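lol ok so funny story. i was supposed to be doing the assay writeup but got distracted and ended up predicting the structure for this chain instead. priorities right. anyway since i did it might as well share w the group, maybe its usefull for someone
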Amino acid sequence: MVNVAVCVATCLRPLGLEKLLESLAGLCLAKSPGLNITVIVVDNDQAGSARQVVERYISRLPLVIYEIEPVRNISLARNRAVAIAGKLNCPYIAFVDDDEFVEPAWLDEMFNTMFKYSADIVIGPVAPFFAHPVPRWQLKGRFFERPAYKTGEQLRWGKTGNVLFKCECLDLLEGPFDARFGLTGGEDTHLFERLYYTGVYMVWCNEAMVWETMPPSRTNLAWILRRAHFNGNTLALAEKALGASGKKLFTRLLKGAGRLFQGILILLPSLLLGRASAARSLVYMARGVGMITGVCGCKLEEYKKIHGT
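and the output, tada:
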């Protein structure tokens, strides 16, 4: 048997957590029948609001562990999950988010890819799931879609919304998630940048599908621009935290300025092409401003607000 911990950090999303646990209860392990799964839920609400949701799935999942991380900080919650997995001697650890749900073959495909390509880390796709009608211009602009690759393709970056680690990789890092990013987000960007410098081999698994629920609070221009700013900001902040040289930070500043001016230049022409094109130019600008503010040390505490239920 191979022990794997599926870790979930949750905060005030009972409906999202229930949907995720329901999907984990339906996992199919046709290619990896020897997996012994432990689901670890760390509640980042000191009141323990997720306890009742988790208790409903104790009989439906092989093993469930629930703990509370009272300090509101996504990094500390994830670190607690990693620590629990370590105490259980799990050589593998997977992460999914509490606003996501997985396909039945998700973990099976992740392990199949890890063994097939002798990888240290496997990343999978996260696709948007809309439970309500979305304006056509948002779909046309593909603002909620993430990059995808061929299975087995080596990666430079990663996210924790759909990932499988060999635990020995995380053992190389202090934390492993940095608490400085606990409210700003970007803790996964910072983590994967540090992992890259340790020489880990990370690949993509296109068959391991995870869906991210998009609530109404996200399907609007304000959130799309805020997310673009957030992505640029946390990228620069992660580089600063890693001790980037003045030259590298100056290059990031120039890239941010380039994005900003690119958006400005195409804004007027894009207005003639419809809302999707106009919004795209604003996204360039927002991401550029995020990079510039990040280099300057300004932080956006994105995780103070909870989107979804």
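DSSP finds ten helices and ten strands in the chain. The mean pLDDT is 93.
back to the writeup now i swear
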